[in-house]
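User: I'm putting together notes for a lab meeting next week and I want to include a structural view of one of the chains we've been expressing. I don't have a solved structure, so I'd like a prediction I can at least talk through. The sequence is below, exactly as it appears in our construct file.
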Amino acid sequence: MINAEMRDYSYYTYGEQNGYGQPTLSGIAAGSVKMAIYTTSQGVQDNVNYSNANYVGLTHDANINDKWVVQYGEKRLKVLYIQPKGRYKQVFLGEMPTRRVPSPVPH
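Assistant: Thanks for the context. Below is the predicted structure for the 107-residue chain, given as structure tokens.
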């Protein structure tokens, strides 16, 4: 049943550091991951670092890590926490803020 709900999603990775020493997100997709993604009404309560996890994903991909950002429609979801027990990896994801491109000022 879960396998029927799995879709291929592109993912991006954090890698090189910018001038401020912060890791930057790759500009092109690093690959794709087959995952079933669901919204959740309950977040991770054990750790405040993961309290923004509004989505839960299930995948078989053993390479998934917290440097990944999954493209979910128009949204980008940052991998916050991975629960590796069982047949599926349970992935907690948080929505990243969208970058707004300023509209040109008319002259």
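A couple of points you could mention at the meeting. The chain has a mean pLDDT of 85. Helices lie at 2-5.

User: Perfect, that's what I needed.
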